[in-house]
Every structure is written in C-alpha cells, then in structure tokens.
Design a protein that fits this description.
Strand 1, helix 2 and strand 2 form a beta-alpha-beta unit. The chain is 49% helix and 19% strand. With 344 residues, it is of the alpha/beta class. The chain has one domain: D-Maltodextrin-Binding Protein, domain 2 (3-Layer(aba) Sandwich), CATH 3.40.190.170. It is built from 14 helices and 9 strands. The longest helix is centred in the last third of the chain and has 35 residues. Strands 1, 2, 3, 4, 5, 6, 7, 8 and 9 form a 9-stranded mixed beta sheet that branches. One of its GO terms (biological process) is transmembrane transport. This is C4-dicarboxylate-binding protein DctP.
Length: 344
C-alpha cells in the first residue's frame, strides 16, 4: 500500500490522537513540525521553526512541545504534506510547488514573472487575495495556513555555459519541481525541463542527470547545490512562496489561549523568516561568487525577453486548467499592490 493510501486510511484516527505526548506527561501537547531546507538560521524555514518553537514552548510553560524535523527528515515534500493532512506530523513548512497536486487552483501561483518585488508580493499575499487563497486551501486540504514567507526569487543555475537570454537555455536539462506551470515555463524559455523531487536535487546535479536548476540563490547555497554548478542568471522568474501549515483538527483541539499563542508565534516567526530570506539573498550572492559561480544580471532588454517568452503561454495554460476567476483575481490584486507600494 502506498504512503498516500496508508495516510488516508489512518487519517481520522491519527488526527484525533495526535497531541498526546506520552504517559510521562499526559497533559503535554506535542506538535511535530517538518520542513525541507537546511537546518541553519540563514534559511527562512528553519528560522521560522526555531522562533515558533521558542515562543510557543516559552509562553505555554512547556504545555506545548514543538519538535522540529528539518532537512527532509520527515520525507520528501509530498510526504510531508500528506503526513500533516493525516496528523502524523501536525505542522509542515512547504513551498507552492506541490500545492496544485492537492488544490488545483494553486496553479495560479506558478505563473512566472508575477511580482516585481517582495513588497508587491506581500501586499498581495497578506491582503484579501491571500486570505481567500488560504481559506480555499484549508477547505480543500484540511491544512490551516499559519503564515506565508518565501525562499527568494528563483533564477537559473547551470553547469555548462553562461545564459544571457532564453535562447541560451536551449539544450540544457533544467530540474524543476513537480509543477506543470514551472515545467511549461522552462519549456517556453527553450530549456528541457526535468521534474525531480526536492530531496533528489543534489544527487541529480552531482550525477549529471540534469545540467542545471531554477532556485533562489540563498537556498541553492545553503543546500550546497552550487558545488555542481558554474553559472547563475538572475532572471528572477518566480517568487518562491513557502507556507507554514497546521492540521486543522489539531488546531481546533487547542484551547483558546493556546490558539492565541500559536497564532502570535506564527506571526512573529513569519516576519523573522521574511527578513532572514531578504538578508540571506543578498549575502548568498557574495558567497556564490566566492565559491566560483559566475553570476549574470540580465539587462532590461534581456529580462524582457525572458518575461515575454515565459509568461503568456504559462498563463494561458493555467487559465485553461483552472478557469479565469483565480487568475483574474490575482492579476487585479497585483495591479492594486503595485499602485499601493510604487515601483521597485
């Protein structure tokens, strides 16, 4: 039986019993929190987890214990989401890449070149559109979003040659996540997309299964992916969104005071994670350069080529798959956000 079937078979029982720690401390609530990135405070996911743990444990006097399972210790991305749905683990921090597998409308977040800056993204994701998305996600999956942060803007890395324009991606096998929009984007930009699970990226680069990948510089450096790469092109095609999600049955089992503590800890942890990513992105470029990575920042004309090739076809595909409502709502929210925060 597959992990998915096992999880679904035991979901109800597990969700009901998830918070009992053990005979030694029958009253203690245990929240097992999984994430996918390196366990360093330079990573948004881990900084979120650590701040959340310290605040929740401190403010509940130890009545709630948070156990962090970082760096894919709880399995690959899909498995971590499924385990959180079942209540095997109660909280997971995961990217938007696999969200469409659980909620098809999440494909809207995979449209490339959406956000011109972090400020625009947060205006959208913290506003009415983000709230609507979080509610729809919860209804579809049973996972409540505690906070949305990011891993930075995704850009292209490769081990073969400099990439200054989409034409330079021709012939390169580029790792993508298991997301149709990401796959279509790489194809439209002349590359050859190869969807590979996050937990297998390092070995795929090491063994030459792929020639490159698209990831935020800070995340790539922390995961040591740069050890098998030579070139980075800062085309910033996707804003890599990460969400902290808690099993809804688990959340509802908490007392009102505990819910308030969890909510406040999540709010603070989200702000810390966002700031961590901003600082790490800037520091990582220097680290990558020192490690021998050749970094190229496209000119405005070159950037326009990436956007004009990568955006329209993917947006059309997403509209065909999920309809116009979610796409139109997102585009309207972006237009309002750009007007509110000004041009970057």
């Amino acid at each position: 039986m597959s992990i998915g079937n096992l999880i679904r078979a035991g979901a109800v029982a597990l969700a009901a019993s998830t918070l009992v720690a053990g005979a030694a401390s029958a009253q203690q609530t245990v929240l097992r929190l999984s994430h996918t990135t390196a366990e360093t405070m330079e990573q948004g996911s881990h900084s979120w987890a650590v701040i959340f743990k310290e605040m929740v444990e401190g403010q509940t006097g130890g009545d709630i214990e948070v156990r962090i399972l970082g760096a894919n210790a709880a399995g690959a991305e899909r498995e971590q989401i499924e385990k959180a749905q079942a209540g095997i683990n109660q909280i997971t921090l995961n990217s938007e890449i696999l969200m469409p597998s659980f909620f098809p409308q999440a494909r809207v977040l995979g449209i490339p070149f959406l956000f011109k800056s972090d400020a625009v993204a947060w205006e959208v994701l913290d506003g009415p559109f983000g709230q609507q998305f979080a509610q729809a996600w919860r209804d579809a999956t049973g996972l409540r979003m505690l906070g949305i942060f990011n891993a930075g803007f995704r850009s292209f890395f490769n081990s073969d040659h400099p990439v200054h324009s989409p034409a330079d991606l021709a012939g390169l096998k580029i790792r993508t996540g298991e997301n149709d929009a990401h796959i279509a984007m790489v194809r439209e930009l002349s590359g050859s997309p190869v969807p590979i699970s996050w937990s297998e990226v390092y070995t795929s680069l090491q063994q030459g299964v792929v020639d490159g990948m698209e990831n935020p510089p800070g995340l790539a450096y922390a995961m040591k992916f740069h050890e098998h790469l030579k070139y980075l092109t800062l085309d910033r095609h996707l804003f890599s969104i990460h969400a902290a999600m808690i099993n809804e049955a688990t959340y509802q089992s908490l007392s009102d005071d505990q819910k308030a503590i969890v909510n406040e800890a999540a709010k603070t942890a989200t702000l810390v994670a966002r700031a961590t990513v901003l600082l790490d992105e800037r520091h990582a470029l220097g680290d990558l350069e020192e490690a021998g990575i050749e970094i190229y920042d496209p000119t405005p004309a070159e950037y326009a080529q990436f956007r004009e090739l990568g955006r329209p076809a993917v947006e059309a595909m997403v509209r065909a798959e999920i309809g116009d409502d979610w796409v139109d709502a997102l585009m309207a929210a972006i237009a309002e956000a750009e007007a509110a925060v000004g041009q970057p």
